[in-house]
Write a structure and sequence with these properties.
about 425 residues, five-stranded mixed sheet, 16 helices, globular
Length: about 425
Protein backbone atom coordinates (compact mmCIF):
# COMPACT_ATOMS: atom_id res chain seq x y z
CA UNK A 1 0.00 0.00 0.00
CA UNK A 2 1.20 3.48 -0.83
CA UNK A 3 0.91 6.69 1.14
CA UNK A 4 -2.02 7.51 3.42
CA UNK A 5 -4.41 10.44 3.13
CA UNK A 6 -7.05 11.77 5.44
CA UNK A 7 -10.65 12.13 4.29
CA UNK A 8 -10.44 15.94 4.02
CA UNK A 9 -7.47 15.74 1.66
CA UNK A 10 -9.31 13.19 -0.47
CA UNK A 11 -12.31 15.54 -0.73
CA UNK A 12 -10.00 18.41 -1.67
CA UNK A 13 -8.40 16.34 -4.44
CA UNK A 14 -11.79 15.25 -5.79
CA UNK A 15 -13.32 18.73 -5.78
CA UNK A 16 -10.27 20.28 -7.43
CA UNK A 17 -10.09 17.55 -10.08
CA UNK A 18 -13.71 18.26 -10.97
CA UNK A 19 -13.06 21.98 -11.43
CA UNK A 20 -15.12 23.02 -8.41
CA UNK A 21 -12.41 24.54 -6.25
CA UNK A 22 -11.47 27.65 -8.17
CA UNK A 23 -12.87 31.08 -8.97
CA UNK A 24 -16.16 31.24 -10.83
CA UNK A 25 -17.00 34.27 -13.02
CA UNK A 26 -19.63 36.77 -11.88
CA UNK A 27 -23.20 35.83 -12.83
CA UNK A 28 -23.53 37.75 -16.08
CA UNK A 29 -24.83 35.99 -19.21
CA UNK A 30 -22.38 35.09 -21.97
CA UNK A 31 -19.39 36.12 -19.87
CA UNK A 32 -17.67 32.77 -20.28
CA UNK A 33 -15.80 32.13 -23.53
CA UNK A 34 -16.23 29.03 -25.71
CA UNK A 35 -12.60 28.19 -24.94
CA UNK A 36 -13.39 28.06 -21.21
CA UNK A 37 -16.39 25.83 -21.93
CA UNK A 38 -14.25 23.47 -24.01
CA UNK A 39 -11.60 23.37 -21.28
CA UNK A 40 -14.19 22.51 -18.62
CA UNK A 41 -15.62 19.71 -20.76
CA UNK A 42 -12.13 18.39 -21.51
CA UNK A 43 -11.44 18.28 -17.76
CA UNK A 44 -14.65 16.33 -17.06
CA UNK A 45 -14.49 14.20 -20.21
CA UNK A 46 -18.26 13.67 -20.26
CA UNK A 47 -21.57 15.46 -19.65
CA UNK A 48 -24.44 13.12 -18.82
CA UNK A 49 -27.69 13.73 -20.70
CA UNK A 50 -31.14 13.32 -19.20
CA UNK A 51 -34.52 14.25 -20.63
CA UNK A 52 -36.07 15.76 -17.47
CA UNK A 53 -36.52 19.50 -17.91
CA UNK A 54 -38.27 20.59 -14.72
CA UNK A 55 -35.33 22.91 -13.97
CA UNK A 56 -32.90 22.73 -16.89
CA UNK A 57 -31.61 19.83 -19.00
CA UNK A 58 -28.97 18.09 -16.92
CA UNK A 59 -26.07 18.47 -19.38
CA UNK A 60 -26.22 22.27 -19.07
CA UNK A 61 -25.92 22.32 -15.28
CA UNK A 62 -22.36 21.02 -14.64
CA UNK A 63 -20.89 23.91 -16.63
CA UNK A 64 -23.02 26.38 -14.66
CA UNK A 65 -21.70 24.87 -11.41
CA UNK A 66 -18.11 25.32 -12.57
CA UNK A 67 -18.16 28.42 -14.79
CA UNK A 68 -21.12 30.51 -13.73
CA UNK A 69 -23.48 32.16 -16.21
CA UNK A 70 -22.18 30.84 -19.50
CA UNK A 71 -24.11 31.00 -22.77
CA UNK A 72 -26.05 27.74 -23.17
CA UNK A 73 -26.25 28.32 -26.92
CA UNK A 74 -22.47 27.91 -27.05
CA UNK A 75 -22.82 24.36 -25.77
CA UNK A 76 -25.58 23.68 -28.31
CA UNK A 77 -23.38 24.86 -31.15
CA UNK A 78 -20.58 22.56 -30.04
CA UNK A 79 -22.87 19.53 -30.19
CA UNK A 80 -25.06 20.52 -33.18
CA UNK A 81 -23.07 22.65 -35.61
CA UNK A 82 -20.03 22.11 -37.79
CA UNK A 83 -17.21 22.00 -37.04
CA UNK A 84 -18.55 19.79 -34.26
CA UNK A 85 -16.49 19.48 -31.08
CA UNK A 86 -18.90 17.27 -29.10
CA UNK A 87 -20.78 14.11 -30.00
CA UNK A 88 -23.37 11.99 -28.27
CA UNK A 89 -22.81 8.40 -27.26
CA UNK A 90 -22.92 6.03 -24.30
CA UNK A 91 -20.16 7.46 -22.11
CA UNK A 92 -21.60 7.50 -18.61
CA UNK A 93 -25.14 6.66 -19.70
CA UNK A 94 -26.22 8.87 -22.63
CA UNK A 95 -23.59 11.58 -22.76
CA UNK A 96 -21.94 14.40 -24.64
CA UNK A 97 -18.22 13.77 -25.15
CA UNK A 98 -15.36 15.51 -26.98
CA UNK A 99 -15.25 14.23 -30.58
CA UNK A 100 -11.58 13.28 -30.13
CA UNK A 101 -12.76 10.54 -27.76
CA UNK A 102 -14.83 8.79 -30.44
CA UNK A 103 -12.05 6.30 -31.35
CA UNK A 104 -11.78 5.34 -27.67
CA UNK A 105 -15.38 4.18 -27.71
CA UNK A 106 -15.32 2.12 -30.88
CA UNK A 107 -14.69 -1.00 -28.78
CA UNK A 108 -18.07 -0.36 -27.14
CA UNK A 109 -19.67 0.01 -30.55
CA UNK A 110 -18.12 -3.29 -31.58
CA UNK A 111 -19.46 -4.89 -28.40
CA UNK A 112 -23.01 -3.72 -29.04
CA UNK A 113 -23.95 -7.30 -29.83
CA UNK A 114 -23.25 -8.35 -26.26
CA UNK A 115 -23.23 -5.18 -24.15
CA UNK A 116 -26.34 -3.37 -25.38
CA UNK A 117 -29.65 -3.69 -23.55
CA UNK A 118 -31.41 -6.99 -24.15
CA UNK A 119 -34.20 -5.62 -26.32
CA UNK A 120 -31.66 -3.78 -28.47
CA UNK A 121 -29.40 -6.84 -28.79
CA UNK A 122 -32.32 -8.84 -30.09
CA UNK A 123 -32.46 -6.57 -33.12
CA UNK A 124 -29.34 -8.42 -34.39
CA UNK A 125 -31.66 -11.19 -35.50
CA UNK A 126 -33.65 -8.84 -37.73
CA UNK A 127 -30.90 -7.88 -40.13
CA UNK A 128 -33.18 -7.09 -43.05
CA UNK A 129 -35.30 -4.75 -40.98
CA UNK A 130 -32.26 -3.02 -39.47
CA UNK A 131 -30.79 -2.59 -42.95
CA UNK A 132 -34.05 -1.00 -44.08
CA UNK A 133 -33.94 1.50 -41.21
CA UNK A 134 -30.27 2.29 -41.92
CA UNK A 135 -31.12 2.72 -45.59
CA UNK A 136 -33.83 5.23 -44.72
CA UNK A 137 -31.33 7.28 -42.72
CA UNK A 138 -28.79 7.06 -45.52
CA UNK A 139 -31.27 8.18 -48.16
CA UNK A 140 -33.32 10.74 -46.23
CA UNK A 141 -31.37 11.64 -43.09
CA UNK A 142 -31.12 13.31 -40.73
CA UNK A 143 -34.28 11.74 -39.33
CA UNK A 144 -36.21 11.50 -36.09
CA UNK A 145 -37.84 8.21 -35.16
CA UNK A 146 -41.28 9.52 -36.11
CA UNK A 147 -40.02 10.26 -39.61
CA UNK A 148 -38.99 6.69 -40.30
CA UNK A 149 -41.54 5.11 -42.61
CA UNK A 150 -40.21 1.58 -42.25
CA UNK A 151 -41.92 0.80 -38.95
CA UNK A 152 -45.17 -1.01 -38.32
CA UNK A 153 -46.91 1.66 -36.27
CA UNK A 154 -48.59 0.03 -33.31
CA UNK A 155 -50.08 2.02 -30.44
CA UNK A 156 -48.10 1.24 -27.30
CA UNK A 157 -48.02 2.78 -23.87
CA UNK A 158 -45.21 3.66 -21.50
CA UNK A 159 -41.76 5.20 -21.85
CA UNK A 160 -40.12 1.87 -22.63
CA UNK A 161 -42.72 0.57 -25.06
CA UNK A 162 -40.59 1.46 -28.05
CA UNK A 163 -41.60 0.84 -31.63
CA UNK A 164 -39.56 -1.57 -33.75
CA UNK A 165 -38.01 1.37 -35.58
CA UNK A 166 -36.96 2.96 -32.29
CA UNK A 167 -35.29 -0.27 -31.17
CA UNK A 168 -33.58 -0.67 -34.54
CA UNK A 169 -32.26 2.90 -34.62
CA UNK A 170 -30.99 2.53 -31.04
CA UNK A 171 -29.14 -0.62 -32.10
CA UNK A 172 -27.59 1.31 -34.97
CA UNK A 173 -26.70 4.16 -32.60
CA UNK A 174 -25.14 1.82 -30.02
CA UNK A 175 -23.13 0.05 -32.70
CA UNK A 176 -21.90 3.35 -34.17
CA UNK A 177 -23.57 2.97 -37.55
CA UNK A 178 -25.59 6.13 -36.95
CA UNK A 179 -24.99 9.01 -34.58
CA UNK A 180 -26.95 11.92 -33.17
CA UNK A 181 -26.92 14.99 -35.37
CA UNK A 182 -29.01 17.08 -32.97
CA UNK A 183 -31.48 17.05 -30.09
CA UNK A 184 -34.87 18.71 -30.60
CA UNK A 185 -36.38 20.40 -33.63
CA UNK A 186 -34.98 23.67 -34.91
CA UNK A 187 -37.85 26.16 -34.97
CA UNK A 188 -37.32 29.88 -35.62
CA UNK A 189 -33.66 29.51 -34.83
CA UNK A 190 -34.22 27.76 -31.47
CA UNK A 191 -34.05 24.12 -30.49
CA UNK A 192 -37.34 22.87 -29.08
CA UNK A 193 -38.05 19.49 -27.54
CA UNK A 194 -35.44 16.84 -26.87
CA UNK A 195 -35.96 14.11 -29.43
CA UNK A 196 -32.77 12.78 -30.94
CA UNK A 197 -32.17 13.19 -34.69
CA UNK A 198 -30.08 10.47 -36.34
CA UNK A 199 -27.69 10.61 -39.27
CA UNK A 200 -24.64 8.80 -40.62
CA UNK A 201 -21.36 9.44 -38.78
CA UNK A 202 -19.67 10.60 -41.98
CA UNK A 203 -22.25 13.40 -42.30
CA UNK A 204 -21.90 14.48 -38.66
CA UNK A 205 -18.45 13.83 -37.24
CA UNK A 206 -15.30 15.60 -38.46
CA UNK A 207 -13.50 13.56 -41.13
CA UNK A 208 -10.22 13.78 -39.25
CA UNK A 209 -11.86 12.04 -36.28
CA UNK A 210 -13.29 9.26 -38.44
CA UNK A 211 -9.86 8.82 -40.03
CA UNK A 212 -8.15 8.29 -36.68
CA UNK A 213 -6.94 4.70 -36.18
CA UNK A 214 -9.01 2.44 -33.96
CA UNK A 215 -7.08 1.50 -30.82
CA UNK A 216 -7.23 -2.01 -29.46
CA UNK A 217 -9.86 -2.64 -26.82
CA UNK A 218 -7.23 -2.81 -24.08
CA UNK A 219 -5.53 0.43 -25.19
CA UNK A 220 -8.87 2.25 -25.42
CA UNK A 221 -9.99 1.06 -21.99
CA UNK A 222 -6.65 2.03 -20.46
CA UNK A 223 -7.00 5.54 -21.95
CA UNK A 224 -10.55 5.85 -20.61
CA UNK A 225 -9.54 4.72 -17.13
CA UNK A 226 -6.68 7.24 -17.21
CA UNK A 227 -9.15 9.98 -18.17
CA UNK A 228 -11.47 8.86 -15.40
CA UNK A 229 -8.63 8.95 -12.87
CA UNK A 230 -7.72 12.49 -13.91
CA UNK A 231 -11.38 13.57 -13.68
CA UNK A 232 -12.08 12.11 -10.25
CA UNK A 233 -8.61 12.85 -8.87
CA UNK A 234 -8.83 10.03 -6.39
CA UNK A 235 -11.11 7.00 -6.27
CA UNK A 236 -11.45 3.28 -5.77
CA UNK A 237 -11.36 0.84 -8.65
CA UNK A 238 -15.16 0.98 -8.73
CA UNK A 239 -15.09 4.79 -8.87
CA UNK A 240 -12.74 4.71 -11.86
CA UNK A 241 -14.69 1.97 -13.60
CA UNK A 242 -18.04 3.69 -13.15
CA UNK A 243 -16.98 6.98 -14.73
CA UNK A 244 -17.19 5.58 -18.27
CA UNK A 245 -19.08 2.41 -17.26
CA UNK A 246 -16.18 0.07 -18.01
CA UNK A 247 -16.69 -3.66 -17.32
CA UNK A 248 -14.93 -4.53 -14.07
CA UNK A 249 -12.58 -7.16 -15.53
CA UNK A 250 -11.34 -4.75 -18.20
CA UNK A 251 -10.99 -1.96 -15.65
CA UNK A 252 -8.90 -4.05 -13.25
CA UNK A 253 -6.39 -4.87 -15.98
CA UNK A 254 -6.17 -1.22 -17.04
CA UNK A 255 -5.77 -0.02 -13.45
CA UNK A 256 -2.91 -2.46 -12.85
CA UNK A 257 -1.15 -1.29 -16.01
CA UNK A 258 -1.65 2.40 -15.21
CA UNK A 259 -0.29 1.85 -11.71
CA UNK A 260 2.77 0.12 -13.12
CA UNK A 261 3.28 3.02 -15.56
CA UNK A 262 3.02 5.57 -12.74
CA UNK A 263 -0.08 7.29 -14.11
CA UNK A 264 -1.90 6.46 -10.89
CA UNK A 265 -0.64 5.47 -7.45
CA UNK A 266 -2.36 3.30 -4.88
CA UNK A 267 -3.13 5.13 -1.65
CA UNK A 268 -5.04 4.52 1.55
CA UNK A 269 -7.75 6.98 2.58
CA UNK A 270 -8.84 7.12 6.20
CA UNK A 271 -12.33 5.70 6.54
CA UNK A 272 -12.38 4.03 3.12
CA UNK A 273 -12.63 0.25 3.25
CA UNK A 274 -11.02 -0.31 -0.15
CA UNK A 275 -7.74 0.88 -1.69
CA UNK A 276 -7.87 4.13 -3.63
CA UNK A 277 -5.96 5.33 -6.68
CA UNK A 278 -4.72 8.88 -7.05
CA UNK A 279 -3.86 10.37 -10.41
CA UNK A 280 -0.28 11.58 -10.62
CA UNK A 281 -1.42 15.16 -11.41
CA UNK A 282 -4.01 15.34 -8.60
CA UNK A 283 -3.19 17.75 -5.79
CA UNK A 284 -4.53 18.68 -2.40
CA UNK A 285 -5.62 22.32 -2.67
CA UNK A 286 -7.13 24.83 -0.29
CA UNK A 287 -10.90 24.93 -0.86
CA UNK A 288 -12.56 28.30 -0.37
CA UNK A 289 -15.15 27.66 2.37
CA UNK A 290 -17.44 30.27 0.77
CA UNK A 291 -17.34 28.71 -2.71
CA UNK A 292 -20.81 27.27 -3.34
CA UNK A 293 -22.18 25.19 -6.19
CA UNK A 294 -25.55 23.63 -6.85
CA UNK A 295 -24.99 20.24 -8.49
CA UNK A 296 -27.21 18.48 -10.98
CA UNK A 297 -28.32 15.06 -9.71
CA UNK A 298 -26.37 13.78 -12.75
CA UNK A 299 -23.21 15.81 -12.00
CA UNK A 300 -20.04 13.74 -12.22
CA UNK A 301 -19.02 14.69 -8.68
CA UNK A 302 -22.08 12.95 -7.23
CA UNK A 303 -23.46 10.59 -9.90
CA UNK A 304 -21.89 7.48 -8.29
CA UNK A 305 -23.98 7.32 -5.11
CA UNK A 306 -21.65 4.92 -3.30
CA UNK A 307 -18.76 7.37 -3.70
CA UNK A 308 -20.90 10.38 -2.72
CA UNK A 309 -21.83 8.72 0.56
CA UNK A 310 -18.27 7.51 1.24
CA UNK A 311 -16.66 10.86 0.47
CA UNK A 312 -19.25 13.38 1.66
CA UNK A 313 -21.45 11.45 4.06
CA UNK A 314 -24.60 12.20 2.03
CA UNK A 315 -26.92 9.36 1.10
CA UNK A 316 -28.21 10.80 -2.15
CA UNK A 317 -30.89 9.11 -4.23
CA UNK A 318 -32.84 10.34 -7.24
CA UNK A 319 -36.55 10.27 -6.44
CA UNK A 320 -37.85 11.15 -9.91
CA UNK A 321 -39.60 7.84 -10.25
CA UNK A 322 -40.67 7.52 -6.61
CA UNK A 323 -44.39 8.11 -5.94
CA UNK A 324 -44.90 11.67 -4.69
CA UNK A 325 -46.15 10.61 -1.26
CA UNK A 326 -43.04 8.49 -0.70
CA UNK A 327 -40.41 11.06 -1.65
CA UNK A 328 -38.14 12.21 1.15
CA UNK A 329 -36.43 15.24 -0.39
CA UNK A 330 -38.37 15.95 -3.59
CA UNK A 331 -38.69 15.36 -7.31
CA UNK A 332 -35.60 17.06 -8.82
CA UNK A 333 -33.13 17.48 -6.00
CA UNK A 334 -29.76 19.21 -6.29
CA UNK A 335 -27.08 18.78 -3.60
CA UNK A 336 -25.46 22.04 -2.51
CA UNK A 337 -21.67 22.00 -2.23
CA UNK A 338 -20.22 24.63 0.10
CA UNK A 339 -16.46 24.57 0.47
CA UNK A 340 -15.55 20.90 0.74
CA UNK A 341 -18.89 19.63 2.07
CA UNK A 342 -22.36 18.82 0.79
CA UNK A 343 -24.38 20.89 3.23
CA UNK A 344 -27.93 20.92 1.85
CA UNK A 345 -30.22 19.72 -0.91
CA UNK A 346 -32.99 21.58 -2.67
CA UNK A 347 -35.85 20.43 -4.89
CA UNK A 348 -35.97 23.00 -7.70
CA UNK A 349 -38.40 23.84 -10.45
CA UNK A 350 -38.19 26.57 -13.08
CA UNK A 351 -41.70 28.01 -13.49
CA UNK A 352 -40.99 29.58 -16.87
CA UNK A 353 -44.46 31.04 -17.34
CA UNK A 354 -44.35 32.87 -14.02
CA UNK A 355 -40.57 33.50 -14.40
CA UNK A 356 -39.93 32.06 -10.94
CA UNK A 357 -37.28 29.69 -9.64
CA UNK A 358 -39.30 27.65 -7.17
CA UNK A 359 -37.64 25.94 -4.22
CA UNK A 360 -40.14 23.17 -3.59
CA UNK A 361 -38.20 21.80 -0.62
CA UNK A 362 -34.97 22.72 1.18
CA UNK A 363 -33.22 20.39 3.59
CA UNK A 364 -30.00 21.01 5.52
CA UNK A 365 -27.52 18.23 6.22
CA UNK A 366 -26.89 17.40 9.90
CA UNK A 367 -23.60 19.30 10.15
CA UNK A 368 -24.49 22.22 7.85
CA UNK A 369 -22.74 25.44 8.96
CA UNK A 370 -24.66 28.55 9.93
CA UNK A 371 -23.70 30.21 6.64
CA UNK A 372 -25.57 27.60 4.58
CA UNK A 373 -28.78 29.58 4.01
CA UNK A 374 -26.89 32.75 3.04
CA UNK A 375 -24.61 30.94 0.60
CA UNK A 376 -27.50 28.94 -0.87
CA UNK A 377 -29.63 32.05 -1.30
CA UNK A 378 -26.84 33.72 -3.28
CA UNK A 379 -26.49 30.65 -5.49
CA UNK A 380 -30.23 30.48 -6.12
CA UNK A 381 -30.40 34.16 -7.08
CA UNK A 382 -27.51 33.66 -9.50
CA UNK A 383 -29.11 30.57 -11.00
CA UNK A 384 -32.44 32.36 -11.44
CA UNK A 385 -30.68 35.17 -13.30
CA UNK A 386 -28.86 32.68 -15.55
CA UNK A 387 -32.15 30.94 -16.34
CA UNK A 388 -33.78 34.32 -17.07
CA UNK A 389 -36.18 34.03 -14.14
CA UNK A 390 -37.16 37.11 -12.16
CA UNK A 391 -37.25 35.84 -8.59
CA UNK A 392 -36.85 32.92 -6.20
CA UNK A 393 -39.77 31.60 -4.17
CA UNK A 394 -39.52 29.06 -1.34
CA UNK A 395 -42.20 26.53 -0.48
CA UNK A 396 -42.61 25.55 3.20
CA UNK A 397 -41.13 22.05 2.96
CA UNK A 398 -37.89 21.04 4.64
CA UNK A 399 -36.08 22.20 7.75
CA UNK A 400 -34.03 24.78 5.83
CA UNK A 401 -36.99 26.40 4.07
CA UNK A 402 -37.96 29.05 6.69
CA UNK A 403 -34.42 30.38 7.11
CA UNK A 404 -33.81 30.30 3.36
CA UNK A 405 -36.99 32.29 2.72
CA UNK A 406 -36.00 34.89 5.32
CA UNK A 407 -32.53 35.18 3.80
CA UNK A 408 -34.04 35.73 0.37
CA UNK A 409 -36.35 38.37 1.83
CA UNK A 410 -39.40 36.58 0.54
CA UNK A 411 -42.20 35.03 2.63
CA UNK A 412 -42.75 31.30 2.36
CA UNK A 413 -45.12 30.58 -0.47
CA UNK A 414 -47.99 28.42 0.73
CA UNK A 415 -49.20 25.48 -1.31
Amino acid sequence: MGRSLNAADARSIAIAAQGLAGFRPAPAPARTTPAAIRAAIARLGVLQIDSVNVLQRSHYLPLWSRLGAYDRASLDRMSHDAPRTLFEYWGHEASLLPVAMQPLLRWRMARAGSDAWTRIREMRKRRAFVAKVLGAVRERGPLRVGELETIPRQPKKGWWEWSDAKIAIEWLFWSGQVTASARGQLTLGRRRGFERTYDLPERVLPPEVLAMPTPSESDAVRALIAKAAAAVGIGTANDLRDYFRIPLALARTAIAELEEEGVIERVEVAGWSKPAYRHRDARVVAIDPARGALLSPFDSLVWFRERTERMFGMRFRIELYTPADKRVHGYYVLPFLLGDALVARVDLKADREAKVLRVQAAHAEPKAPGATATALAAELRAMASWLELDRVEVMPKGDLAPKLARTLGSPLRRQ
